[in-house]
From TrEMBL:
It comes from the Eukaryota. The chain crosses the membrane at residues 21-39, 79-101, 122-152, 207-231. GO terms for biological process: neuron projection development. This is Neuronal membrane glycoprotein M6-a. GO terms for cellular component: axonal growth cone; dendritic spine; filopodium; neuronal cell body; plasma membrane. Its main location: other. It is found in: Cell projection, Dendritic spine; Membrane. Keywords: Membrane, Transmembrane, Transmembrane helix.
């Protein structure tokens, strides 16, 4: 490719190099990174804000020993977020490398479009991983919508309390499964802590962080769909060369 660029001018060489980049794979990878980064960063901070709200306004404390309480579940979710961030960073690099090796630059470098059976199998395996991660992100998106729904209910209660005078509303953590049935952790509109929670920055910030987390999960789903389409198109285009040599 460098030898051919010597015969061209600077403008033509740059146009050829830019035109041979795998723009579709590059955009899908950037969208995947943005979605995962938004999900992991906002999700981590939203979980930390949830811990602050539970401790400051509901007076929920950590259970002694190794009891599986809401704080332990939050810590587990944080570790899952760390794993997702590391895993999808590696997966994004693999997708980008796959995009470069299946773009027009490689075809120009090696002449005719050739692909081995081994390369086709590796690409099919990558497509299988992309489809598996797509299903995973669908589940993550559905799971992330639950705290958004919960915080929206809390926000609605705060709005209704300020609009309707004399409204008697209570927020019970047992309804959300945050505490056991035997524990009674609730806030009613007549309490001072309820008004402090509604006026606090923690509630508003945590709610918007969960919304951004949901948006990041949705962006990752779109990136996975785009990746599956790209890989399947390449496999379909190279089907008649599956027994060609490199």
């Amino acid at each position: 490719m460098l030898s051919s660029c010597h015969c061209l001018g600077c403008k033509e060489c740059c146009e050829r190099c830019v035109g041979s980049l795998p723009w579709a794979s590059l955009i899908a990878t950037i969208l995947l990174y943005m979605g995962v980064a938004l999900f992991c960063g906002c999700g981590h901070e939203a979980l930390s804000g949830t811990v602050t709200i539970l401790q400051n306004y509901f007076e929920v404390i950590r259970a002694p020993g190794e009891t599986l309480d809401v704080f332990t579940i939050i810590d587990i979710l944080k570790y899952i977020i760390y794993g997702l961030a590391a895993g999808f960073f590696v997966f994004g690099v693999l997708l980008l490398v796959e995009g470069f090796f299946t773009t027009g630059a490689i075809r120009d470098l090696y002449g005719e479009f050739k692909v081995s059976a081994c390369g086709r199998c590796l690409t099919a395996f990558l497509m299988f991983l992309a489809y598996l991660f797509f299903l995973v992100w669908l589940g993550v998106t559905a799971f992330t919508s639950l705290p958004v729904f919960m915080y929206f209910n809390v926000w609605s209660m705060c709005q209704n309390t300020s609009l309707v005078e004399g409204a008697n509303l209570c927020l019970d953590l047992r309804q959300f499964g945050a505490v056991t049935i035997s524990e009674e952790r609730k806030l009613c509109t007549g309490s001072e802590k309820f008004f402090k929670m509604c006026e606090s920055n923690e509630l508003d910030l945590t709610f918007h962080l969960f919304v951004c987390t949901l948006a990041g999960a949705g962006a990752a789903v779109i990136a996975m769909v785009r990746t599956i389409i790209l890989i399947s198109d390449w496999l379909w285009a190279s089907r008649k060369y599956c027994y060609s040599s490199d």
